[in-house]
Specification:
alpha+beta, Rossmann fold, 3 strands, 31% helix, 9% strand, globular
C-alpha cells in the first residue's frame, strides 16, 4: 500500500474511473490508494464520504505499526473530512457503500466477501 498513496498511475486511474461513473472499490490496505485522489474541483474523491480500511487496532494486533509509514485509519479520516468508520471489533467485517458516488470500501480481509457481494448487487441492478 505504501506506493499506492502517491502513485500517479493509480491516482489517475481511480480519478478516471470516478469521472466515467465506474465503481471505485477498495478493501483493507487498498483503501490507501484513495487518499490522494482529487476530483476536477480539487476536492478529495473521498471528501465527505464514509470510508473504511485497515484500522489502527488491527495494525497493532498484527504487530505492523513499525512497518507503516503512516496510520491508514487517520489518513482516511483526514481525507474524508472525518468519515472514517470501523467495525466495533477488530477483524470483524465492515463494508461501506456511498449513497452519492460509486464508491465502496471494506475494512479488512474479512470484508472482502461482503464487499464483493455488495458490488455484485450494484452491477446486477
Amino acid at each position: 500500500m505504501f506506493d499506492l498513496v502517491n502513485d500517479e498511475t493509480s491516482i489517475k486511474l481511480l480519478r478516471e474511473f470516478h469521472d466515467k461513473s465506474k465503481y471505485v472499490v477498495a478493501v483493507c490496505h487498498g483503501s490507501a490508494a484513495l487518499i490522494n485522489v482529487k476530483l476536477a474541483d480539487g476536492t478529495n474523491l473521498i471528501a465527505g464520504e464514509k470510508v473504511t480500511g485497515f484500522s489502527d487496532a488491527e495494525e497493532v494486533i498484527a504487530n505492523r505499526p513499525k512497518d507503516m509509514p503512516f496510520h491508514l485509519e487517520d489518513s482516511l479520516n483526514v481525507a474524508s473530512n472525518g468519515g472514517y468508520e470501523k467495525a466495533a471489533e477488530a477483524w470483524a467485517p465492515k463494508v461501506l457503500v456511498s449513497s452519492t458516488k460509486k464508491l465502496m470500501t471494506g475494512q479488512n480481509p474479512a470484508s472482502a466477501q461482503p464487499l464483493a457481494i455488495e458490488l455484485l448487487k450494484k452491477l446486477q441492478a
